[in-house]
Task: structure prediction
Amino acid sequence: MAKISSAKKELDMSTLWGGTASSADTHPRAAWFRASKYAMFIHWGLYSEAGGMWNGTAWHGISEWMMRRARIPVREYETLAARFNPTDFNADDWARLAKAAGMRYLVLTSKHHEGFAMFKSKASPFNIVDATPFKRDPIAELSAACKKHGLGLGFYYSQFLDWHERDAAGNDWEFSKEQVPDKDFNRYLYGKAIPQITELLTNYGDIALIWFDTPGSITRQACEELQALIRRLQPKCLINSRIGNGLGDYSSLGDQEVPLTGPAGLWETCDTHNDTWAYSVNDHHWKSPTELLSRLVRVVSLGGTYLLNVGPTGKGIIPESSAEILRRAGAWLKRNGEAVYETTRSLIPAQAWGVTTAKPGKLYLHILNWPTRGTLLVPGIKGVIKKASILSTGELLAVSRKQGVIAITIPLLAPEKPHTVIVLDMPGGIKGAASAFSVYPDLMNHLPAPFAKLTDCTLAKKAWMEKFGDWHHTQVVHQIVTGSVIEWHFNSLGKGLFNLSLEYDCLPEGDASEFELTLGANRWRFPVFCTGNRHANRFRFRTECLGVVEMAKAGPAVLKLEAMSINDAAHPRPYRVE
Ligand code: H79
Result:
């Protein structure tokens, strides 16, 4: 339900990832991007050979950051190149997997923060052709395979951080300003980054997009120069917002950020299949086909594109568990892709049963949680329904409408797995009401923070890492003081008993703060408890059952939480059980 939080110093996420894009939302150059919806991100480099292990130590979290975390000297790290020999790499296999997964383009790390180029480069000998026994150029092979299979190809390029170069940013263990007093970022920018980006945009045919990362303190002028270079070499190539300074064509949200509400303009969520981008021998935490498809359609229903990462091994193999899950999700897309590709964002907020996508004259209902009483209720949609059917089987469904809410008679069991799509044919046009924020009988409902009306408290975005670099994102009600009020105004689609629980984070000094809950005739007070000491700005959310409420009738309702007494550092009131 609610996420209530108080937290101390945190990283500024927009500085870290470069903020949003100027947005080419309606630009014809972006049409293919707007239609594609699902793509494969690939993190592959020398770190893949190490797999998150260095001299017997496991570096949990994002394994492409191991060089920095273990402060590995450049000369020592280069020994990875001497043994990097991905003889099992087959560009055609990767392209066929992306196709089978239902993905429309690939984005490959051409050079990550480690500074190693995965292509033949005249600008630096630290590249896969010149520095490894492999000697092949995988980017040339991938570009041919993508062409053959009708996939777009884009390149990730770390423009700011390059731990291999004395003049670039990021290597503070060998190349700090103290260690290298004549350090000159421009020498790196014009000596390596710009020449390599030029090579990438010259030697491999049409490039769909350039994916920059962590722009850091790179100047506006340098960003403009990069943008001009890309426009000159490949006018159709898109640029993500992590070029910095608002110069991108579309916004990349924070790493692994599946948002609750859709940003304006053209945007993408970049996500990864486990908790690292590059291969790690220790990470087998794969998202299931159900989770992947749910994240995909949630993003698409909010108008975004889902860029999902895989991490091939140092031998060049995409781990089979990961590949098999992608293929299973892809099999669903073969049957249900009409409800994903080329769709536009939802006209109503997410419902307890799932989300919607749309095309002219068609509304797609993605039923992520199947209602068990034989009826699906859809609030807030106006327009004549000619036909309702199950997308993958064509089975026709009976539809009626009561007080503006569509009721569809559905089978008792979901006919499709992982989730069923119901399509409404509405050739006369579809209108949605943004106010269709609803609570549904007999399903789990979420009342997220962005949908609350707040008095004397604020809505805040929070991001934190569990393992190193595996970002978690949420939105919370923040800066709660005594007297703050949080209200959810919603439309109840049925009467009944609801089990209410609250998800919150509470610092030790806030322990035993007291709230009052009101919903119709229900009213009582409850304390919240410290959710534990935390380290490194991690949040410790806890879900607490508050009790059972009765909603006596369907219709508009308000759930209100009022802060009766908030304990803080200035007014601690440690809770004592005596
Ligand atoms: O390529 C993947 C990651 O390696 C990359 N983006 C995805 C797509 C990425 N690079 N940086 N980050 C993600 C953010 C990492 C930030 C931090 Fe830190 C590392 C925060 C804490 C440790 C920056 C460096 C702030 C303090 C030190």
Notes: The chain has a mean pLDDT of 94. Residues 16, 62, 64-65, 213-214, 255, 270, 277, 469 surround H79 (CB under 6 Å). The CA atoms of residues 35 and 342 lie 4 Å apart.
